[in-house]
Structures
1.
Amino acid sequence: MRLCKEVSLEDVLKCSLDLSEAEINTFKSVLEIEEPFTVTDLSEYLERDRSVAQRHSKKFLEKGIVKRTQKNKEKGGYEFFYRIVDRDKLKSILRDGLQNFTSQVKSVIEGL
């Protein structure tokens, strides 16, 4: 059982944020992007369908690990830009998620 001997970033993201393997891979790519990005930018970067980038961006926003800003277009309409939250906030979110996970593990143990 690898999780008990060695913990990776993937394990932390799965346990603290309940991300799927595909979402984890997308998030690791998002960590590499330094500038604000659109869903289309992310889709092209990942070489995946736009709907995948949209779903993952929405989930990351719900989890609080990315922030979104709206930019109005000159000819009408708008576009959303996403960016990873600052590293200290990200670390805090992951720590909080792991505390929740640890509480769940303790409950399972107490149920024995």
2.
Amino acid sequence: MQSEVIVEKRYRVLRVIATLFRVLGIIGGVLVVLAAIGICLTLVLGASVITPWETPRPWWGRPSILPGIFLLVRSALGSVSLALVLVVSAIQALVLYSIGELIHLFLALEENTRAIAAALRQPRT
């Protein structure tokens, strides 16, 4: 039967920092999801409110197509930049959480190494 070696937990401040990174990553992920839901709802529910402005009529009397083209280009650029911001924010939240997990992994590795060293130092019975 093997005896279990109990080692003290060291690096408390580093554990707090790692937990803080994980919490910030979770908060960032929740905010990204809420922002995506809010943006989707705004686009779906707010589409009926947004109406293109009156197309100006030049002196020859036919409506111009330029305001519609500008509205289309502006909407496309807005959608692309919005998607880019959401993707970058999601990656940032994932990186924050991963940093916290990586710090916890290194701390567990150090703790296990100390436990193995202490177990090897004990006399065999």
3.
Amino acid sequence: MIIKAKTKELVSIRIRQGLSRHALSQKAGLNKYAVARIEKGLNSPSPKTAKAISDALGCNFEEIFILLEEASNAS
């Protein structure tokens, strides 16, 4: 499984709460550059990181992240 951010929802919730990326990263115990890359959809967070962001924002995982099946290379 791959975790992907619902980027628009993630950014919208963060902004509605008056948090900068830096403030969210501090609240979640993460690097601000990691938060920026997740928000932009460039990185897929680990389950632990996704939970930390969800908890820091006080929202459900499903509000800001989706689970995707990994593509298999098997023929």
4.
Amino acid sequence: MEFIVWREEFSVGIQRIDEAMLAKHGYPAAAEHAAEPRRIVGELTALKADRFSSPSLLSHETMEFLRDWLGTHVLGADKAYAPFFEAKGEK
């Protein structure tokens, strides 16, 4: 449960940083990119509510969600804008 709460708080924080950086540099797909973290935070909030109502080990559904978030968003969408930021002098 603590992991889900941490993941939700981390996602909200990193989303704010991402959106600020995307806006600062005029990333062309900023609106589309921002939609995905919002969806993820919504799903984390729902997972957290499920865990509060029925505390147990992380379910298969939760593990699938976390795997999808890592594989799709972090290794896909976030990595896709790395060259854009590097060209702007950000690391």
